[in-house]
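LAB NOTEBOOK - FOLDING QUEUE
OPERATOR: T.R.
BATCH SIZE: 2
PURPOSE: Compare the predicted structure-token outputs for two unrelated chains run back to back under identical settings.
PRIORITY: normal
REVIEWER: second-year student, initials M.K.

ITEM 1
FIELD SEQUENCE / FIELD STRUCTURE:
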Amino acid sequence: MMTQVLNQFSKWFLHHQSFAGYIEPIMQTFKPAWRANLFRAQVAEINELNGSFLSVLLKPSKHWQAHTAGQHISLTVEINGRLLTRVFTVASSPEQFKTTGLVRLLIKTNEQGRFTHLLSGALRVGEWCNISAPSGEFVYKNTQKAATFIAGGSGITPMLAMLSEHLKNTSQKVSLIYFAKATEHQCVDELSKLAGDFSHFSFLLLTREQSGDITRNINVWENPDIYCCGPAGFMKTVSDFAKKHNLNYYQ
């Protein structure tokens, strides 16, 4: 009710659509990157990875609610005086956020893109950006069933979060089939540690050249739930396979 009153006051007397928008420049004097309806996040660490990927650790403000593993957020950064926003999946677990206060994004930079190729220069440790509340339905559905995760390229990001969060909660067999260019598999050490810690987890690192058939390594006889993330054509191939074999499919 109070928000509606303030917004109406702003329209009548301040000639602005919202009161929060009107006071935004004032708030930014005290809190850099403060913006209505978004959360502030401070850049804690940036690392360049192989295959033109960036690993970005963010420390969200205290009011940000932890994500569910597999969900995504919108990242808003001011670049050359303009606010640019893109959606990225959180590549770290909710448990990591609860223990460290940090969330990780794995971002594939693209020289032709209007946003990602500028990030390494626009994001600096200690500076502030904005993130949205987490959202998305691509989450671990049933830890009581075997599961096969199939990732293509940057589609590995939600799976890193889900595997890190849920392997400890299941005794069912879990496998990851991860397709990427030969030099672009990410977080292999992290996956190896998970495989060492949990005997029911295994993973394969493949390229399309090595295995032209994306689905050849899915063990249908295990009746696994299928989780897939990657390019549209990649996911359609896996989806069609899952339907053919009456497997639960999530993307």
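ITEM 2
FIELD SEQUENCE / FIELD STRUCTURE:
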Amino acid sequence: MHASKPGSGLPRPRKKPTQPRAVFTVQAIYDGFVRIWRRDGPAAATTRAIAAETGYSVGTIYDYFPNRTALLAGYYEHCIDRLCEQLVAADTDSADRPWPARLRLLVQRLYGQSSDSPYFDREMLTRESLVANPGRQQHAFEKCSACVYELIQGWPDRPGAVSRRHVDTLVQTVWGSMRYAHILGRDTLAADAHVEDLTLMARALLLSAAEDQPDKG
């Protein structure tokens, strides 16, 4: 008998929606889940409450999520997908700006400081380690890091070549800072200042990477 991988038995969504109607349904379920979580607290975000909030039946919700833990795990993955979409869209909109300005927007998005950033709070982040499959967490990180790497590589005026290692460090630094800020309960003003500091650190990292690996392309 093969030993199971850590976290392999954790609940997970039954399926990932691909058809437009299913995508709309799952988005509505996530939106209802977040509204209840923020308005009434985590304990109130039950399957029945989400059904009442969204107008979908409990059976429809079960078609995608066997229980609330699976829904929460699915929401984390959904947030990564949404974050990558937002990173690409924001960078495309700022294509005519110099790379330091695009970097600042990228850090702001990664830190979750945009008005339409996926919602997270202290309790959600605390529960993530309890419900998320480690392998899927790694996949989510690699997906986001690859997205950031491709964006930076597309900046024509970037200071030089950037390796995946440097981008991994950048993403880990910003994400780790965001998570710890939630744990500490930092306010918006402190978060804004933190984004500025993180942007300076990210800029120094990219400049250092360029010195180590001159761009010959």
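REVIEWER COMMENT (ITEM 2): The domain at 12-66 is CATH 1.10.10 (Arc Repressor Mutant, subunit A).
FOLLOW-UP: none requested
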